[in-house]
Amino acid sequence: MIRSLGAIVGAAGRADALARGYEERLATIRAASEGRARRRVYFEEWDEPMISGIGWVSELIEIAGGRDVFADRAAAKAAEERIVSSEEVIRAAPEVILASWCGKKVRPERIAARPGWNAIPAVATGAIHEIKSPLILQPGPAALTDGLDAIVAALG
């Protein structure tokens, strides 16, 4: 997309350099996670109903060294197709919970207090992290930089 837009506005060289920079950054982060155990991650895009992460979020989790527990749903465009139940999340047993409730502050204590969620490793260890929605819920530069950095930090 960056290269296409660059070509349209007569800045193909600059756009290519920018795109190459992002590609190199993603490759470097992916390489840094090689050989490490992949922690199971549940990304919650919304809380009521609970909606798991969209495609690019799932991809960024993988690049950062995690494993999206609902990666099979990430390709669904419609949020309704990514609704998950509390029981499904409990069964998936994520080691890290990332949440970004579009336009609304994430309340980790509300996540932790859900019935039965005390059995989830992420809840037991307090590994519930908010990523601000402008950093992760829009495909683009912020997701590839600050959003990805937040995922890497959470997976620590």
Task: Tag the structure with descriptive keywords.
Rossmann fold; 156 residues; five-stranded mixed β-sheet; alpha/beta
CATH homologous superfamily (4th level) name of the largest domain: Nitrogenase molybdenum iron protein domain
| Secondary-structure arrangement, i.e. CATH architecture of the largest domain | 3-Layer(aba) Sandwich
Q: Classify the oligomer.
A: single chain
Main sheet specs: 5 strands, mixed
The number of strands is 5
Task: Write structural notes for this entry.
- It is built from 8 helices and 5 strands, in the order H-H-E-E-H-E-H-E-H-H-E-H-H.
- It is α/β, with parallel strands linked by helices and 156 residues long.
- The radius of gyration is 16 Å and the shape is globular.
- The two termini are 31 Å apart.
List the helices and strands and how they pair.
Elements: H1 2-8, H2 12-33, E1 39-47, E2 50-52, H3 55-64, E3 66-68, H4 86-92, E4 96-99, H5 108-112, H6 121-125, E5 128-130, H7 133-136, H8 141-155
Parallel strand pairs: 1-3, 1-4, 4-5
Antiparallel strand pairs: 1-2
Helix pairs in contact: 1-2, 3-8
